[in-house]
Amino acid sequence: MSMHRREFLQLLALAGAGGMTLHNDFARAAAAAGQMYELPRFGNVSLLHMTDCHAQLMPIYFREPDVNLGIGDMAGRAPHLVGEKLLKQFGIAPGTPQAHAFTYLDFAQAAKTYGKVGGFAHLATLVKRMKASRPGALLLDGGDTWQGSGLSLWTKGQDMVDACKLLGVDVMTGHWEFTYGAERVKQIVDGDFAGRIDFVAQNVKTTDFGDQVFPPFVIRQINGVPVAIVGQAFPYTPIANPRYFTPEWSFGINDESMQEHVDAARAKGAQVVVVLSHNGMDVDIKMASRVRGIDAIMGGHTHDGVPAPVIVKNGGGQTLVTNAGSNGKFLGVLDFDVKGGKVSDFRYHLLPVFSNLIPADADMTALVTKMRAPYEAKLNEKLAVTEGLLYRRGNFNGSFDQLILDGLMKMKDAEIAFSPGFRWGTSLLPGDAITMENLLDQTAITYPYTTLTPMTGEFIKTVLEDVCDNLFNPDPYYQQGGDMVRVGGLQYRCDPTAKMGSRISGMTLDGKPLEASKTYRVAGWAPVSEEARNAGGEPIWDLMARYLKDVKTVKPVKLNLPELQGVAGNPGMA
């Protein structure tokens, strides 16, 4: 296989034809950008890929990160490129619709020009268009689909289950789905999905006898070609999320069993083997180097919108590794030309879903409207207005994270606050109202308890070091969670390149060094322990709703960012 880079770059450049930039009129932008969706058919096997939509049925804004650091072998390669460095790497012209879709650059102004992204009604139109031009194409869902909105929380994911069935999802794996509990997941998989959607996960097994909880793979025929889709659920689910949701299931990366299932699929006649993964892109790249016989890994979890595949050499040849962003913002299209029982060539496109450029599908619009109707009043409740850009995404604090931290410290009378390094959460432009729906986009989880905990300075450092290692361990197989815990009140220095236990230093509070033996009041939310669940605690959305109603107007927040060391010149940092 070889990447036809020239064709890829030509397609990316269509919206920049004739010198068009963000400063030209939208009509010209729409006419040129619309050509993105006119992809000529290639080959005889096509796979469509969405991942990490986080229950966003409606069009939204979503700002890409300005800090996505790669450490060690991961430095300087996709997905650890931001801003101008990403544009240069993939040959994307500045000021184009694609530049807006893939980077944070000039985000607020570009968002006003091009409007919102995603929305299942618009995604449905694009999926139908791609399937019509690619007979037999399968739609793969990489997970983190049933969680991330108030509506999904209140319906226990049923809104997304119904929407995905109508969208035409064929195969799925999972992560945040498991936070509804094993019983609910099995209820959906064995009931709603029966005969419609295959839920696959080779690495989810019972803790007693090691039996498969879900089928490890499925083989589907596409134009007479047997294609195997092997599932890889998020391997660290019981660590990143509460263990009590899936007490009888084990997870893990499980390279050895992955190789066994790839070999088994080949033995059953599969001419194409694709892994539908929720590992995160760095883990996928390492797995691709270790497991033979995989033609492509279509990945999720890290929300990386990567315009072209990373091609990984291994003992069996090579494997394409892709990642299709988040929030319904992108649709991946992978075309294979299969000859003589194996892949001979391919094309890949990651299409931004601009809701202003794609008409809404009537059937999906009707379904979404019906599902939202009983909850519209609550979702649309206005809590405050923001004067600045609010977003979450990046290795460290985003402005919506900072708002939550400020609210926690105020409402809990805390000196320090921690907020999880979640990657999901939509963006708001300056002047937007902050509604209950917007707040729930940042907080809607099944363990939303707020806490106030006495912690010594020594313990606080231990917490920061532990989370930092989850993010910056040079071996991606030891990266077990999201981004860095968001920190309020406390200032610190961070050297991502240092060894574990030595990355955090210079911790101060109100300009004074943190004392190892002194106890501080630390607010937080989303605790994973069973003890915290039993203790209860006000849900974070109730606390923040009261805070926002009291504030009324949210001034542009000042980010409490660590002083970074050891990463000067890293292309993963603006």
Question: How is this structure best described in words?
Answer:
- By secondary structure, the chain is of the alpha/beta class.
- About 30% of the residues lie in helices and about 20% in strands.
- Strands 4-3-2-1-13-14 form a 6-stranded mixed beta sheet. A 6-stranded mixed beta sheet has the order 6-7-9-10-12-11, covered by helices on one side.
- Helix 8 (about 160-165) packs antiparallel against helix 13, helix 15 (about 400-410) packs across helix 19 (about 540-550) and helix 16 (about 435-445) packs across helix 19.
- Residues about 1-25 have low confidence and may be disordered.
Can you give keywords for this protein?
six-stranded mixed sheet; single chain; 574 residues; alpha/beta; disordered N terminus
Summed up:
By secondary structure, the chain is an alpha/beta fold. A hairpin with a 2-residue loop joins strand 11 (310-314) and strand 12.
Rg = 23 Å
Residue share in β-strands: 15-25%
Largest β sheet strand count, sense and barrel closure: 6 strands, mixed
Low-pLDDT regions:
1-24
Give the terminus-to-terminus CA distance: 34 Å
SS elements, strand count? 25
Topology (SSEs and partners):
Elements: H1 5-13, H2 26-33, E1 45-50, H3 83-90, H4 97-102, H5 107-114, H6 120-133, E2 138-141, H7 150-154, H8 158-167, E3 171-172, H9 182-192, E4 198-199, E5 205-206, E6 217-222, E7 225-232, H10 237-240, E8 249-250, H11 255-267, E9 272-277, H12 281-290, E10 296-299, E11 310-314, E12 317-323, E13 330-339, E14 342-352, H13 362-372, H14 376-379, E15 382-386, H15 399-412, E16 416-419, E17 433-435, H16 436-443, E18 450-456, H17 457-472, E19 486-488, E20 490-494, E21 504-509, E22 512-513, E23 519-525, H18 530-535, H19 540-551, E24 553-554, E25 563-564
Parallel strand pairs: 1-2, 2-3, 3-4, 7-9, 9-10, 10-12, 15-24, 16-23, 20-25
Antiparallel strand pairs: 1-13, 5-8, 6-7, 11-12, 13-14, 15-17, 16-19, 18-23, 20-21, 21-22
Helix pairs in contact: 8-13, 15-19, 16-19
